[in-house]
Task: structure prediction
Amino acid sequence: MPIKILDPQVVSKIAAGEVVERPASVVKELVENALDAGASQITVEAQGGGISLIKVSDNGSGIPAGEVELAFARHATSKLSALPDLEKIATLGFRGEALPSIAAMADVELLTRAADDAAASYIRLANGRATHREKRSRPRGTTVTVHHLFRHFPARLKFLKSPTTENSHIANLLTQYALAFPEVKFSLSLDGRLTLRTPGNGNLRDAVAEIYGLEAAQQMLEVNSTEPGYTVTGLVSPPSLSRSSRNYLSFFVNRRWVRSSLLSRSAEDAYQGLLMSGKHPLVMVNVALPPQEVDVNVHPTKTEVKFRNNQTVYAAVARAVKTALQQSPPPRVKTGKAAAPPAPRLFTAVPEDKPAPPPTTSYPTPQSAASVVKNGDVPALPVLRVLGQMAASYILAEGPEGLYLIDQHAAHERIIFDKVLAQRAQQGVEVQGLLEPLNIELSPGQEQTLNSRNELLRQFGFNLEHFGDRSYLLRAVPAVMAGANLAEAVRALLDSLASDDEPATKREETVAQSLACHGAVKAGQQLTFEEMRSLIRQLEETASPRTCPHGRPTMIYLSSRQLAREFGR
Ligand code: ADP
Ligand code: MG
Result:
């Protein structure tokens, strides 16, 4: 085929496809427009994951009647006029691409009134072209309604995830903007249910309380540091508060929400040595710097930025977070269970004739060997004799041929992982009801995950009942979780299930892994000899006693011969 210049229609569809990847991209562009218009109140509604409907209303400046149609023309913007402006962008939008791109992908209605106009302008577009115009009434501001996204783009539709997953992308997006703009009142309804509402009083901590719960909000440490050219502000969690995923790291550059591995690294590096491996902090930090120092025109969706000086930004953020962490009280010394938050009281839901585990300890629970599948390929563990515990973290045990140092947490993880999966495959997961239900606050994203994974969680023994807003009552848990910090465990579990890409079988393992991680005895917890013996006995029964479910070793083995050699015998 000879080279020829593409038809403008095709060009605009290609460009639109880059801006509007999924329903959340539409929400992002419309919310950014509302913020650029100086709105103090932004209301978002979505239905069917945003595929059937997205509606964003604001009380911002509105679009003057004479410019309404122009706003839908490609590369039409009020935010940029000459090339030098591109070097110092102070608005979220600047490419003039969002409205035309959205109109190319969906049916759109716009109702807007600028302060100087007597009436509001209403316009309806199909396939990017205006099909209807009239005057209506409304107070100052703009409402954009988007219907049937991708209706004429079956290939795009096919790549979308389930409506609940698309909903959770929308919820996550609103979360980010609510954290970036605490002075704006945001509200989000998904399928008619109010999912998020922020006070808009300008206080970031109050926004965090709405999103991540009061308990987290109260503990967050303030970041506020100014260096020549850089101001870093926000909130970060103290080392005692962490999450099992990076979903709680939010970064803004001149209040634009960005994804930046540089910023994630700089913040996380500040926590070095303060968090257990696999744990991540909660961070919401804005880096303010002169617009010339950052290039925001890197990608059509504007979520990536380039800094002129990576090193300086990295150092400024790391220093700011470190300074904040110095305000935190020194970590408490762990003494057995006392360091863990009190576990709710439990009763057992298994029939009376089965012995219930003691209510105050999560462990040991007698394990019937029959319920564990043995894998013949793996060398089994010999019978071990417990010698003692070291550093309240390792069990020392003697085997016929040498010494074993067993990581109590990793070993217990392996036991729980195998036990839960075996129960799941056979008689069903053993459940424990809570004497008093535990009230758990979920983030909007977690709530969406719960909606789509409720059946899976039920099969693993969780009973979560909606209580109002984003509060849930936890009424029952898998028996292996007794003694764990249940609120944290449930939230971490939901985070680990957020991805839609996992096949169903892998998802069961993800649940089992999460249960193992939170149900297992912690390092730093003193164990009695009987507890240690029981743990070793159960470990012997597992299919792969030498590795934890994450693949790390559960034990170190020193053979008698090695010892003899070390001692020069
Ligand atoms: P950009 O935001 O990059 O300028 P858009 O296509 O998103 O491009 O919007 C085009 C123009 O329409 C904006 O520059 C702005 O003038 C106007 N506009 C869009 N949405 C709003 C809104 N919610 N309130 C006021 N003006 C708006
Ligand atoms: Mg825009």
User: Anything to note?
Assistant: The CA atoms of residues 221 and 283 lie 10 Å apart. The chain has a mean pLDDT of 86. The chain has 15 helices and 23 strands.
